[in-house]
Amino acid sequence: MAFFDPAEGWDREEIERVQLTRLRNTVQQALKSPFYRKRLGSLGITPEAVTSLSSLRDIPFTTKGDLRGAYPYGLLCVPRDEIVRLHASSGTTGAAVAICHTRDDLNTWADLMARCMYMVGIRRSDVFQNIAGYGLFTGGLGIHAGAERLGCLTVPAGAGNTRRQIKLIQDLGVTALHIIPSYALYLGATLKSVGIDPRELSPRIALIGAEPHTEEARQRIEYLLGVKAYNSYGLSEMNGPGVAFECLAQNGMHIWEDAYIPEILDPKTLEPVPDGEIGELVMTTLTRRGMPLLRYRTSDLTRFLPGPCVCGRRHRRIDRILGRADDMLIIKGCNIYPMQIEQILLSFPEVGQNYRILLETEDGMDQMRVQVEIREEHFVEDVRVLRGLQERIARRLRDEILMTPRVELVQTNSLPKSEGKAVRVHDKRGQ
Ligand code: AMP
Ligand code: ZN
Question: What is the whole-number distance in angstroms between the Cα of residue 347 and the centre of ligand 2?
């Protein structure tokens, strides 16, 4: 099998040997920041104290709150002059979080990203369109750098302006693209409405990620765009894209364990959960110099997929992200993740490409309203047929989430859409 980087082919022993050396170096580097000097110093954590990978458990967690407190430069481990790029998390709530990179950090990141793209069959002969916002969001420049590192003809299309995106795809003979799943669904619906057959377009590969999405959404994207779609996971705190990526098997994402140590912990006890069980992903950087992070609590919920992957790589796989710990909705005593709702909605062929979840208070009680776009050809149907559909959706939702939301069927393109990460849940309780 062709690897972009020999590290992809390492066995477990080699991976863990390198991890231990790199963890020691990372602790040494981290101690150069006032933040970690204070936090680790008082616990006697030094590079020498890291005697095995299980020493990781002695290291305290780093949280988003820590990053906010240290904003913008408090976690730097190199002189500020060595920092050449700053990114920020797209989080819509709370204060900003800044991540700073040295030139070497950017190089390593581009290599990781190129490795992901090569793994799914992208080569220098490809024309790659990056349909993602260029700015503080890492999906723009991060993916861009990987594509250029591979030697692709790279088109920094940015987000939005759907007609122009389609024209670029057609004019340039684009063969691979990167796009956020909710926007991919919208682009796919637009192709259909302007009468373009995706099978006549040149793209064969799409990288989709940056937001939670279900297997149902992936299959729709593959159908609507006529591509193979591969899940791409990352977060600004760990660079951005290039952290974990699906291989050709499309069965879980390999976390690059030569660059990160992943742990999956019970969010309450903070003890490791057994492989196959869901918990919070906690990550340690192993190659970053400008701003290394130790045991960063991502809030993302996933599980390690047990057993080796058919592709031969021994870097462990995580399942698609179920959501963030703070995404969980509690309504009428039921714990609900938005992805459970998406999974049901998109399994109905009549359902279009957009939906939203509204939480409201009515007479002092929490209510959930699910607005869902219905495909044009179905919306014109008899009222009785639509009512029947509405009831079937409500019933399936009730079976899944154990409460009955109010379901509203709306026309295609009537719900607000976003060019970046979709905002699916609107909590109007207490307003
Ligand atoms: P940001 O750093 O602002 O780009 O946001 C990173 C967050 O986006 C992660 O912590 C995840 O919650 C989410 N995310 C990124 N990639 C994926 C993916 N492939 N599937 C699900 N969620 C994702
Ligand atoms: Zn694999």
Answer: 27
Residues with CB under 6 A from ligand 1: 89-91, 138, 209-212, 231-236, 298, 300, 321, 324
Token output for 401: 């989430």
CA of 383 to the centre of ligand 1 (A): 39
Q: How far apart are CA 211 and CA 421, in angstroms?
A: 6
Q: How confident is the model at residue 349 (pLDDT cuts 50, 70, 90)?
A: very high
Q: pLDDT of 397-429, one tens digit each? A: 999 999 999 999 999 999 998 888 999 999 998
Cβ atoms of 397 and 404 closer than 8 Å: yes
For residue 315, the ligand closest to its alpha carbon is 2
**Which pLDDT tens digit goes with each residue over 139-174?**
999 999 999 999 999 999 999 999 999 999 999 999
The DSSP bridge partners found for residue 88 are 98
pTM over 0.70: yes
